[in-house]
Design brief:
Strand order of the largest sheet: 5-4-6-7-1-8-15-14-13
Number of domains: 2
Shape: globular
Order of helices and strands: EEHHEHEHEHEHHEEEEEHEHEHHHEE
Protein name: 3-oxoacyl-[acyl-carrier-protein] synthase-3
Domain Beta-ketoacyl-[acyl-carrier-protein] synthase III C-terminal: 284-362
Keywords: Acyltransferase, Transferase
Number of helices: 12
Radius of gyration: 21 Å
CATH superfamily of the largest domain: Thiolase/Chalcone synthase
GO molecular function: acyltransferase activity
Distance between the termini: 21 Å
Helix content: 25-40%
CATH class of the largest domain: Alpha Beta
Domain Beta-ketoacyl synthase-like N-terminal: 87-203
């Protein structure tokens, strides 16, 4: 069967007004009534200027993750493509509103419409691309003529100071300062809320541009490397990973078990190296000349990694100069599984693309080192 898959529509939804660096702690709250000592360093390195929260300036919830995702999907719809035409709904997120039902089921429940096939990908940054690949394969195989794929996050609720209150009090008793570990503080100044959605179809747009999906490749290095970013678990002194269900309930809040934590040492050592290693294998196998791509869209958790990625790729014979890079991290923030969609949506609607342009997307995930690469051609 000679079929192709095209991204024909892209949409995004960012809640409320942009939040500046000075406003972060006024919304998320101060841990132990004091501003983070690490905040200036973290913001200087990540170079994020604004981000979005699914809450108002008083910290009151305005949107759930389901709401964010639904609103992004609704922006794909019009008289030419209606809710009742959706065949597959595939949703990826790190931060579902509940453990059960699955996130895609909740989104379908709010959207309404007709019975559809659903798929939920729950992981970290690459969950959105895992959702995209399910939709891509569904259309490519002929089992569906279209698929709506999404990536979304509502990180802000996981970062509220009140969830660290007991741990901070415990630390204050032991150390006298009440300052939580850097691995937890680090992410409070990087993560953002929002959602992106893409419509995949078996035919390109009759008018206007489409993005032909050439390939989607993903690989995990969990067989080699330990968990780097995690939630609902702790590591003991020996580095053993212990999940929440094996931890006594009274320790859940005292140790902020459900906060998102990042091993920054592990991150710095492997995230760039393994990503370059995989891309080299993929482009060699597919005969891709990376230096000839028109745009490179890397999902960055921090601008700190940009120069390191550029240097690593060049050392492997894959020179992609900064002039070809497109990222919106500085004004959108790190939106995890939504970030690839938000980058692609902004570039797609920027007026910069022309037929024949090639786009290479890179989505690294540090949770346990999973990587995704996507190649697109403008048609």
């Amino acid at each position: 069967m000679n079929r192709s898959v095209y991204i024909t529509r892209l949409a995004s939804f960012l809640p409320n007004e942009p939040v500046s660096n000075d406003e972060i702690e006024s919304i998320l709250g101060l841990i132990n009534h004091q501003s983070s000592k690490a905040k200036p360093l973290i913001l200087r390195n990540n170079q994020i200027k604004t981000r979005y929260y699914a809450s108002d300036k008083q910290g009151n919830t305005t949107h759930t993750n389901t709401d964010l995702t639904t609103k992004a999907v609704e922006k794909l719809l019009d008289k030419d493509f209606t809710l009742e035409q959706i065949e597959v709904l595939s949703c990826g997120t790190t931060t579902p509103d509940q453990m059960l039902p699955a996130h895609a089921a909740m989104v379908h429940g709010v959207l309404g419409g007709i019975p559809v096939e659903i798929n939920s990908a729950t992981g970290a940054c690459s969950a959105g691309i895992q959702a995209l690949k399910f939709g891509y394969l569904s259309v490519l195989s002929g089992s569906a003529e279209n698929a709506v794929c999404t990536g979304s996050e509502r990180f802000s609720k996981w970062m509220l100071a009140k969830f660290f209150k007991e741990e901070a009090a415990k630390v204050a008793q032991l150390e006298g300062d009440g300052i939580i570990a850097f691995e937890k503080d680090f992410l409070r100044f990087m993560l953002s809320d929002g959602a992106g959605a893409a419509l995949l179809e078996s035919k390109p747009n009759p008018t206007g541009l489409s993005l032909k999906v050439e390939w989607v490749e993903q690989r995990s290095y969990a067989h080699e490397l330990p968990a780097c970013m995690y939630s609902g678990a702790v590591k003991d002194k020996e580095g053993k990973f212990i999940g929440w269900s094996d931890i006594d309930q009274e320790h859940w809040t005292a140790e902020s078990v459900f906060s998102i934590k990042q091993d920054t040492k592990l991150l710095g050592e492997f995230i760039v190296k393994k990503g370059g290693e995989l891309l080299k294998k993929i482009v060699d196998a597919k005969g891709v000349d990376v230096e000839k791509i028109t745009y490179f869209l890397p999902h960055l958790s921090s601008q700190y990694f940009a120069s390191r990625i550029e240097k690593e790729l060049a050392s492997l014979g894959m020179n992609i100069p900064g002039s070809k890079w497109f990222t919106n991290l500085s004004w959108v923030g790190n939106v995890g599984a939504a970030s690839p969609y938000l980058m692609l949506e902004e570039l797609f609607h920027s007026g910069r693309l022309k037929k024949g342009d090639t786009l290479l997307m890179m989505i690294p995930e540090s949770a346990r080192f999973n990587y995704a690469y996507v190649m697109l051609t403008v048609v």
